[in-house]
Amino acid sequence: RLYQMEVKIPVKCGELLLADIENTGVNVIFSCDCVKYRTVIMSVKLVAHRGESEAAPENTLEAFTLAWARGARCIEGDFHLTRDGEVVCMHDDNAKRTCGVDRPLAELTLAEIRSFDAGKGRLEFTRVPTLGEVLRTMPEDGEIFIELKSVGPILDRLKAVFAAGPWRPEQLTFIAFDETTISSVKKLFPAHNAYWLLCNWIG
């Protein structure tokens, strides 16, 4: 579901960014000191980032299930490959911040990661989920942005995960900061949207 939102975009380098947004429905341009702003009307999609992560531990089934229950129609999760080839949902490449265990995910098996508490006491024992488990929480009209944190071998594992479920290409969108990863996933899944992330701020 898309919402119309008025957005004020700062531009510090001439008209460079302004030219890029001409087709979004420009209302007005004005200046403040040396920084120009343009107010635009844009279609935006509301996404539950790492699930309902204010009320439940981020990137857990509890967070995603709560997001759906509260009316979200799109979620985002971060995914890494374990040592034994499973795709798990966690933002960092180390389990320390969310689980209190200072170990890199790439060096751990799924069974080892399953023994960690991803809630660090916020809820009763909270398990780190797999990609398949996250997808199975999704309603028929739901969507997910799958941020690929690992590179290389994770792509082959995605094929096996997707083959096990009824999900449609328009429900599964890939995002990644690594250019090679996002290019490769688009070639592997040409029917899916795939976006290369460059930064998370403007200005």
Please state the CA-atom Rg, rounded to the nearest Å: 19 Å
How are helices and strands ordered from N to C? EHEEEHEEHHHEHEHE
For the terminal residues, how far apart are their CA atoms? Answer: 27 Å
Please summarize the sheet with the most strands: 6 strands, mixed
Coarse structural class: alpha/beta
Total helices: the number is 7
Average pLDDT over all residues: 83
The helix content, as a percent range, equals: 10-25%
Task: Please report the total strand number as a whole number.
Answer: 9
Shape annotation: globular
Percent in strands: 25-35%
Uncertain stretches of 5 or more adjacent residues: 12-34
Q: In words, what does this structure look like?
A:
Strands 4, 5, 6, 7, 8 and 9 form a six-stranded mixed β-sheet that branches. With 203 residues, the chain is α/β, with parallel strands linked by helices. The protein has seven helices and nine strands; from the N terminus they run βαβββαββαααβαβαβ. It is globular and about 45 Å long.
